Amino acid sequence: MTTDIKDNVKGMKNHTKYGIGYFMPPVVSQKWVCKDHLDKAPRWCSVDLRDGNQALVVPMSLEEKLDFFKLLCDIGFKEIEVGFPAASETEYEFTRTLIEKNLIPEDVTIQVLTQSREHIIAKTFEALKGVKKAVVHLYNSTSVAQREQVFRMSKEEIKEIATFGAGLLCEYAAKMPETEFIFEYSPESFTGTEMEFALDICNAVIDIWQPQPERPVIINLPATVSMSMPHVYASQIEYMSDNLHNRESIVLSLHPHNDRGTAVADCELGLLAGGQRVEGTLFGNGERTGNVDIVTVAMNLYSHGVDPGLDFSNMPYIVEMYEKFTDMKVHPRQPYGGKLVFAAFSGSHQDAIAKGMHYREEFNLDRWNVPYIPIDPHDINREYEADVIRINSQSGKGGVAYVLETAYGYNIPKAMREELGYLMKHVSDVNHKELPAEKLHEIFLREYVNRKDKIVLKDATFERLPQTESLGDNGIRADVQAEAGGRIYELSGEGNGRLDAIMNALRKGPYRIDCDFVTYEEHALESESNARAAAYVALKDKKGSMHWGVGVHNDIIYASVNALLSAINRALAQNER
User: Fold this and answer.
1) Domain boundary assignment for the chain
2) What does DSSP assign to residue 6?
3) Which of 248, 369, 389, 441 lies most in the core, judged by the most C-beta atoms within 10 Å?
4) Which CATH number applies to 28-325: 3.65.10.10, 3.50.50.60, 3.20.20.70, 3.40.50.720?
5) What is the model's pTM?
């Protein structure tokens, strides 16, 4: 018996202790609201090896980080934050290994993180000796909560921390002219900072760095803690974008976290509002509820016809490697990457998907617009039959027919699909299990195909009869040898075709075959010249019940005879119940 939830909780009366901790800009234009989509991809920066790694229960080893770095390069990331070299010996060693072993591709720029403290900045530049190009990411906390509770400093003192560090970056970079440095600044906890102060401190840093269009700097505006609805973050980004100094020389970067479950929305609206670059992780791994999921943002662009500049064409492999390196699991419903994201169990969904797939084939369409499936699973190396339509007790006739068609080539007649669907639903319901394609096929073969449980046709010969008024010019005589109940019977029958003649012959056997022939369909199971044929026969008994049988054989005549025998055997078996 389930315990009443009220016995274990006190209710949600504590909401009164929460309030609004974010700040709207003093001027709100919201030009971004008029844009309905993004028409180009941002610059991407993976922070999997820093934000992602520090969020793991067991951080990655050096070898795992090196392998993960290679995976990120293979996906197409051109900017990768490799760590905080001054924070630990492991991160320092990782940075040095990348540089000393020449593991950084020519078109990839590594990024390192540093606080605005001189000994940390010195250690950071020491870690970068010999690198051809690097982003040095300077940050300090600016929010009201951080200023008042952690640092207990005034705005001016916080600003001094930022400008002090900005000046030191210039000094240390000047000592390493062989390296091309790109500077980045983040007012950490930006979303909890008054917008005028965030703008003031960013502009103070910009004024020290003096960027030029050919030598831009990055201003990164993180939702270190997500505090508002996404439109507020977008308005904050737009305000900063409109008022930063040297805007043409600034790359405006976003770094959303997912505390409110809105990181992707924050990111997309932030890009509409002026963001040009995104820092995030694969599948959103990060501290607390995680960082923005770059896979989702990139694939959302892809689904709108925009090249994301990242290659997720082998999504199952990327998921496998990610899970191996991080010991984390990608949720089965995680957008694009989860095992079940394309899976439809609902009967109505399955029917619509199957019809949509057939519509594409019928009209040879290039544009993807299949109901319920936002992108073609093949584009990310997912299979229709294994991933799209999955059969359980909630499934319907269209889904079962679609799986048997795409996986095994059976084009189930429409009139047969309802009976077949109910059968599979019943099996799944009784066993409380999903039915994978191979199990569906096993049940289908056992129940419908080439059945020999009551009557076995050992031999049959056919003779065309002279034209008669009753049989017309298609009169056929069938002489059959049938086995039933352990005995052999020699039987003959006439009809207006082979199946009708065999049916009439078998009526003279030991079993009462009280059915009439209703319909017949056939098709090739494969495309080769020696392909097997599949035939479908339906019989109706005196009670009005339909009995379907399926025959498979290399010869279409034998396939049709097998289908008839299967239907008869099913009718006899069901009448015994």
Assistant:
1) 28-325, 347-447, 455-575
2) G
3) 389
4) 3.20.20.70
5) 0.83
